[in-house]
């Protein structure tokens, strides 16, 4: 498919005044090149602000303060991963050096077993580094990370435990965890222990059984009782309500089941991904620019905050799902992803050079009910934006 939606006039938001009406009509090839050239410059600004040994997460505009975290935070791999995507498109040597430096910072995570996020942390980073360089040392790090992640598999519930037991949860599994299966599949498919892929399949099947509602929306958290092996309760942590559709959770589910189909070719994963895509794209609360509110059931829509990260993840997933689709569905998935990317490329969402602490995108929401990361840049929004732009260029130009 060459070009979809050649004339993409984007009408921003009916019903709110927080975003100006904007139009982006340039060809996608030009838009994508511009975004990567911008990213190469903007990330030099970001790099200068990062304290040694930490990884960038967000930016507090009021205090002009970069928010950076310890490498054990689930987002620690997105910075180096973003740099590798920028390097791939620009061949900028300085960016590559920075990417290599960022990998060294997070390498000790390869033996970390304290959360389920090893896929995010080590595959978005070292996975891209290995894809682009073929350096066997990077593959070793990925193999070790998969072994660490596999320690969190709980046979009693046929799932990987997300967070440790706490006063809130017995054995929680969150929908986000679908994103960590890709690394397990990849390692088994590239000469590693076959058990990792078996774990990924078991986890995906349990998620399929327990996380979804009949309309293909998902619960955020399913809490299990390890002594009985049964579901204890279904709830949320970052969503508006236990019964709501937290937007980034729907994006993780879409991406995760699409990736599981890539690796297994099991039709039920593809059917699930299709159902989730239709849930998102046909939702009456999806705004005209297709950048979701932070929860599809958020109070105060259309005045609720957006989540640019959900748009970037969804766009990237839709572009892959379109690879496994035909006809009208394929056209719809690519054209919706294109609308999301064009929206994110406008000044309504894309920062200006030197601003936004050096991050690319504005207006993401991390955890609104926890009063955390509301309407801010987030490193993973940048990562999936760059990935989606790369995918569009690779498959649809
Ligand atoms: N995995 C945590 C989040 O999406 O916020």
Automatic annotation (TrEMBL):
Annotated residues for binding of substrate: 117, 176, 236, 248, 252
GO function terms (MF aspect): chondroitin hydrolase activity
The keyword Hydrolase belongs to this UniProt entry's keyword annotation: yes
Coiled coil residues, start to end: none
Keyword Cytoplasm: no
Entry keywords, A to Z: Hydrolase, Signal
Domain of life from the UniProt record: Bacteria
UniProt GO BP: polysaccharide catabolic process
Gene3D superfamilies: 1.50.10.10
Signal peptide: 1-20
Active site: 117, 176
Family designation: Belongs to the glycosyl hydrolase 88 family.
Name used for this protein in its record: Glucuronyl hydrolase
């Amino acid at each position: 498919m060459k070009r979809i939606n050649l004339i993409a006039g984007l009408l921003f938001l009916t019903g709110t005044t927080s975003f100006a009406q904007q139009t982006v009509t340039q060809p996608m090839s030009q838009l994508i090149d511009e975004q990567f050239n911008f990213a190469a410059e903007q990330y030099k600004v970001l790099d200068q602000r990062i304290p040694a040994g930490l990884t960038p997460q967000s930016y507090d505009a009021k205090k002009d303060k970069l928010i950076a975290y310890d490498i054990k935070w689930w987002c620690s791999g997105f910075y180096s991963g973003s740099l590798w995507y920028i390097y791939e498109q620009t061949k900028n040597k300085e960016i590559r050096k920075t990417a290599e430096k960022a990998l060294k910072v997070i390498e000790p995570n390869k033996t970390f077993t304290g959360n389920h996020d090893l896929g995010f942390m080590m595959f978005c980073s070292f996975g891209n580094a290995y894809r682009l360089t073929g350096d066997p040392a990077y593959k070793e790090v990925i193999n070790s990370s998969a072994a660490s992640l596999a320690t969190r598999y709980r046979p009693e519930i046929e799932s990987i435990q997300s967070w440790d037991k706490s006063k809130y949860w017995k054995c929680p599994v969150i929908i986000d965890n679908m994103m960590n299966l890709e690394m397990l599949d990849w390692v088994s498919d590239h000469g590693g222990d076959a058990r990792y892929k078996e774990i990924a399949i078991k986890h995906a099947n349990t998620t399929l059984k327990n996380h979804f509602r009949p309309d293909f929306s998902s619960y955020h958290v399913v809490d299990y009782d390890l002594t009985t092996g049964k579901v204890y309760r279904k709830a949320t942590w970052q969503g508006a309500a236990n019964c709501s559709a937290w937007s980034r959770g729907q994006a993780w589910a879409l991406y995760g089941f699409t990736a599981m189909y890539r690796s297994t070719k099991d039709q039920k994963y593809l059917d699930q991904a299709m159902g989730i895509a239709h849930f998102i794209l046909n939702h009456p609360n999806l705004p005209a620019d297709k950048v979701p509110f932070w929860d599809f059931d958020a109070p105060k829509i259309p005045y609720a905050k957006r989540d640019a990260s959900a748009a970037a993840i969804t766009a990237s997933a839709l572009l892959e799902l379109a690879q496994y689709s035909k006809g009208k569905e394929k056209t719809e998935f690519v054209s919706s992803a294109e609308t999301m990317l064009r929206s994110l490329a406008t000044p309504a969402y894309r920062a200006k050079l030197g601003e936004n602490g050096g991050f690319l995108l504005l207006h993401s929401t991390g955890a609104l009910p926890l009063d955390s990361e509301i309407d801010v840049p987030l490193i993973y929004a940048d990562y999936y934006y760059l990935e989606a732009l790369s995918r569009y260029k690779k498959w649809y130009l």
